[in-house]
Write a structure and sequence with these properties.
This protein is an alpha+beta fold and about 180 residues long. The protein contains 5 helices and 7 strands. The chain has a 7-stranded mixed beta sheet with strand order 1-2-3-4-5-7-6, with helices on both faces.
Length: about 180
Amino acid sequence: MTTSETISELGRIARPQDVSAALERALAQCWAGVINGGGAVIPPECPPPPVTAPALAPATARIVQGLAPRRSNLLVATVGDSLAGWLVLTREAHPFEAHCGVVNHVQTHVDFRGRGIGAVLMRHAARVAREDMGLERLKLSVRDGLGLDDFYRKAGWTEVGRWPEALRLGPGDDRDEILMALAL
């Protein structure tokens, strides 16, 4: 099965009122699955894994409430009626960086891994950033040790730096934060 046959819809949501309660719950459920699988950032107010979707509801609500057409967009991929993946694309707030955007919360639902959902979402993010938000560059940071930097390199991103041992996942488990960029 190819990615184009898998994804039913790619969406861009730019206003809080356009996020249904069901979608907001699905975002939290996806996020919980990814965290529990070892692959996502845990919001500060959440307990250590395993986490539940209700524990992520406040963080998910903050993301939704922050949506605005030229400032912060939620990009989603669905397969049938199911949320397969999502990410947040945000314009930098400082005037010197307003031509740049940040990609956060890149998630592929654990049931849809290996189908190219993440790659399609990243291409969609570049297109939305350039065409709809007028951005010229994107940046993101990833945790070392999971192979995520290889995923982003394959999508055209370049490593531009590292914060050595900036992320402490547990006692004796410090990881580099890898900084990456994409020119649009």
